[in-house]
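Team,

Forwarding the record for the chain on the shared tracking sheet. I've put the sequence and predicted structure together so nobody has to dig through attachments.
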Amino acid sequence: MTAVEPDDIRIEALFASDVQRSEQPTPELIRAVVSATVQRLGPGGCAARVAQEFGEHPDCALGRMRWARRAVRTAYEAA
Protein backbone atom coordinates (compact mmCIF):
# COMPACT_ATOMS: atom_id res chain seq x y z
CA MET A 1 0.00 0.00 0.00
CA THR A 2 1.41 3.39 -0.94
CA ALA A 3 1.36 6.46 1.29
CA VAL A 4 -1.02 9.25 0.37
CA GLU A 5 0.60 12.64 0.08
CA PRO A 6 -1.01 15.59 1.91
CA ASP A 7 -1.27 17.54 -1.35
CA ASP A 8 -3.20 14.66 -2.94
CA ILE A 9 -5.78 14.80 -0.15
CA ARG A 10 -5.98 18.58 -0.40
CA ILE A 11 -6.47 18.45 -4.17
CA GLU A 12 -9.21 15.85 -3.86
CA ALA A 13 -10.88 17.90 -1.11
CA LEU A 14 -10.91 21.06 -3.21
CA PHE A 15 -12.19 19.06 -6.18
CA ALA A 16 -14.98 17.61 -3.98
CA SER A 17 -15.95 21.01 -2.57
CA ASP A 18 -18.56 23.42 -3.90
CA VAL A 19 -15.96 26.11 -4.67
CA GLN A 20 -15.81 27.01 -8.35
CA ARG A 21 -12.88 28.31 -10.37
CA SER A 22 -15.07 31.20 -11.55
CA GLU A 23 -15.25 32.45 -7.95
CA GLN A 24 -11.50 33.12 -8.11
CA PRO A 25 -11.03 31.92 -4.52
CA THR A 26 -8.19 33.36 -2.48
CA PRO A 27 -5.48 31.11 -1.03
CA GLU A 28 -7.01 31.66 2.41
CA LEU A 29 -10.44 30.52 1.21
CA ILE A 30 -8.95 27.48 -0.52
CA ARG A 31 -7.14 26.41 2.66
CA ALA A 32 -10.33 26.88 4.72
CA VAL A 33 -12.48 24.97 2.23
CA VAL A 34 -9.96 22.13 2.00
CA SER A 35 -9.86 21.79 5.78
CA ALA A 36 -13.66 21.86 6.11
CA THR A 37 -14.16 19.36 3.28
CA VAL A 38 -11.65 16.89 4.71
CA GLN A 39 -13.32 17.19 8.12
CA ARG A 40 -16.77 16.68 6.60
CA LEU A 41 -16.04 13.87 4.11
CA GLY A 42 -12.73 12.42 5.31
CA PRO A 43 -9.95 11.55 2.87
CA GLY A 44 -11.79 8.48 1.61
CA GLY A 45 -14.96 10.45 1.02
CA CYS A 46 -13.07 13.07 -0.98
CA ALA A 47 -11.49 10.36 -3.13
CA ALA A 48 -14.89 8.73 -3.65
CA ARG A 49 -16.39 12.03 -4.78
CA VAL A 50 -13.54 12.50 -7.27
CA ALA A 51 -14.05 8.97 -8.64
CA GLN A 52 -17.78 9.55 -8.96
CA GLU A 53 -17.30 12.77 -10.92
CA PHE A 54 -14.75 11.18 -13.26
CA GLY A 55 -17.23 8.35 -13.85
CA GLU A 56 -20.25 10.57 -14.42
CA HIS A 57 -18.69 13.67 -15.99
CA PRO A 58 -15.23 12.84 -17.35
CA ASP A 59 -15.38 15.75 -19.79
CA CYS A 60 -15.64 18.28 -16.93
CA ALA A 61 -13.71 16.43 -14.26
CA LEU A 62 -10.33 16.66 -15.94
CA GLY A 63 -10.44 20.45 -16.15
CA ARG A 64 -11.60 20.73 -12.54
CA MET A 65 -8.79 18.43 -11.40
CA ARG A 66 -6.20 20.53 -13.22
CA TRP A 67 -7.59 23.68 -11.62
CA ALA A 68 -7.68 22.06 -8.16
CA ARG A 69 -4.06 20.93 -8.48
CA ARG A 70 -2.85 24.41 -9.44
CA ALA A 71 -5.01 26.15 -6.85
CA VAL A 72 -3.87 23.91 -3.98
CA ARG A 73 -0.20 24.26 -4.87
CA THR A 74 -0.54 28.04 -5.03
CA ALA A 75 -2.59 28.25 -1.80
CA TYR A 76 -0.21 26.13 0.24
CA GLU A 77 2.96 27.74 -1.15
CA ALA A 78 1.54 31.10 0.01
CA ALA A 79 1.01 29.82 3.57
